Amino acid sequence: MAEEVSCLKARLMEKEKEIVALKNKLATLEKSTTDLQLQKNVITLPPLKPKAVLSNEDIMRYSRQLLLPELGVHGQLNLSQTSVLVVGCGGLGCPLAQYLAAAGIGRLGLLDFDQVELSNLHRQVLHGEESQGQAKVQSAADAVRRLNSTVECIPYHLLLSPENATQLIQQYPLSP
């Protein structure tokens, strides 16, 4: 009988720990939901402002890729006028967004409706442990902004659907 009571007490303590963890996750989720500046609807974006020359900071930041004959100053200026929409901030979307931001893309749209979970962290490189329970687009947008503050990053916390796809995708033309 004593062994059974001990076993039940242990299970009860485990369940209490689970409840505390779930309460913390809920609090984080509620906080991130109220703090988010996410686009829940598709808005019309203004065109990117043309950049005539690279600043000294741009030259320092992008110096290695400016040396590439295929890119150079003209290519870097074109890149700063380019908009890309990344659909999904998971295993493929994270490194794509990271490299586009690092390269100096002008505008980066991030679209995802999911939230960061512990099981995402080993392959979704823009998210960290502190992002658990947060919308993936917010976590990814924060990471992109830390990486390159000159990139205009627009997080869309919504599902891509037939109703919003055309309007959303038109905001990100294939060429500048």
TrEMBL record:
<dbReference type="Pfam" id="PF00899">
    <property type="entry name" value="ThiF"/>
</dbReference>
<keyword id="KW-0175">Coiled coil</keyword>
<feature type="coiled-coil region">
    <location>
        <begin position="5"/>
        <end position="39"/>
    </location>
</feature>
<dbReference type="InterPro" id="IPR035985">
    <property type="entry name" value="Ubiquitin-activating_enz"/>
</dbReference>
<protein>
    <recommendedName>
        <fullName>THIF-type NAD/FAD binding fold domain-containing protein</fullName>
    </recommendedName>
</protein>
<dbReference type="InterPro" id="IPR000594">
    <property type="entry name" value="ThiF_NAD_FAD-bd"/>
</dbReference>
<dbReference type="InterPro" id="IPR045886">
    <property type="entry name" value="ThiF/MoeB/HesA"/>
</dbReference>
<feature type="domain" description="THIF-type NAD/FAD binding fold">
    <location>
        <begin position="62"/>
        <end position="172"/>
    </location>
</feature>
